[in-house]
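Support reply, case 0932

Customer input (verbatim):
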Amino acid sequence: MTKTTSEANREIAFKLSNNLPRLLQEFYRDYDRRVLRGIAERGYSDIRPSHSQVLSNLGTGSVRVTELAERAKVTQQAMGKLLKELERLGYVDRAIDSSDKRAKEIRFTERGLQLVADALEVVDEVRAHYVQKIGARELDDLEQRLRQAVDRLELDYLPESWADQN
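Our regenerated output:
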């Protein structure tokens, strides 16, 4: 039996919309929306999705702009723009690197460290929401399988200084 054009088009649309990259993207979008909403409710309405490139790669020490851009996989210019914005908002501070006067070290301010603490609480709340919806064992299994896949694919997603801590 041959398919009608409409049936063929529906099949193609289903395959384009129901695949691993799309499912991961939808999960990420939902997760990100929930985290951003939670931190906005805690008084950080000035944080935008693009700021996560800095916030998730900075850590609690200090780091150079070049390393931060490399971790986030963005250009130094793009990272510099994000850093200027976060500095203006009071979340990060840029200072001259004590070991290389040409370089700048980036670190969280007290306000930035409070944002991190509050964001970690929100992440726990979002995880609890997912546990309620899909179950703890299922969520743990999903996370573990994704971690195994990333490891087997040898994807470099953690800074070297963090790699031994997982």
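We compared this against your earlier run and they match. Two observations from our side: The radius of gyration is 20 Å. The chain is about 65% helix and 5% strand. Please reopen the case if you see a mismatch on your end.
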